[in-house]
Design brief:
By secondary structure, the chain is mainly beta. The protein has a single domain, classed as Jelly Rolls. Helices cover about 0% and strands about 55% of the residues.
Length: about 150
């Protein structure tokens, strides 16, 4: 197996957890894995809004290294955090989640990033990430009809 280069991004397309890289990394099925770089580089996924509107974001982050992950995770746009948390540990016990709706301009970028956190060390820092981004349909205002008198017996 070739040596992993970091920062890195992995994906487990199967329905089952998969162990790799000396078997101390376990990535749940259907989750992505983000690993920061040795000099503080962030492993990053970038979403660019295809059109102006509201977008819903729902993301889960958890440690994916059995030794114990210590990373900082962020969802940010235009230099402002929409969400940030620290992942400490392994598996569901380290779970951090974000759910929110954001107004974006056409072409506006939102980054989902994983850095090496407070220990300033990138070893054992694989972080599992799962999420969705969806456009929120606009609801147009329409008249609901004329007012009606209350019913009386």
């Amino acid at each position: 197996m070739p040596r992993a280069v970091t920062p890195a991004f992995f994906f487990n397309p199967s329905g089952a957890a998969s162990a790799f890289i000396a078997n101390n990394n376990v990535l749940p099925g259907g989750w992505a894995g983000f690993h920061p770089g040795p000099s503080g580089e962030t492993s990053d996924f970038r979403f660019t809004a295809p059109s102006a509107g509201r977008y819903s974001f729902a993301f889960s982050f958890e440690g994916a290294d059995t030794v114990g992950t210590n990373t900082d995770v962020h969802i940010y746009t235009r230099g402002q955090d929409l969400f940030s948390a620290t992942i400490n540990g392994f598996g569901p016990a380290s779970l951090q989640t974000f759910s929110g709706t954001v107004s974006l301009a056409t072409g506006q970028v939102v980054d989902i990033g994983v850095g090496f956190a407070t220990n300033q060390n990138y070893l054992f820092d694989l972080t599992a990430v799962q999420g969705t981004i969806a456009a929120v349909p606009e609801v147009s205002a329409r008249p609901i009809g004329e007012a009606r008198r209350p019913w009386r017996a």
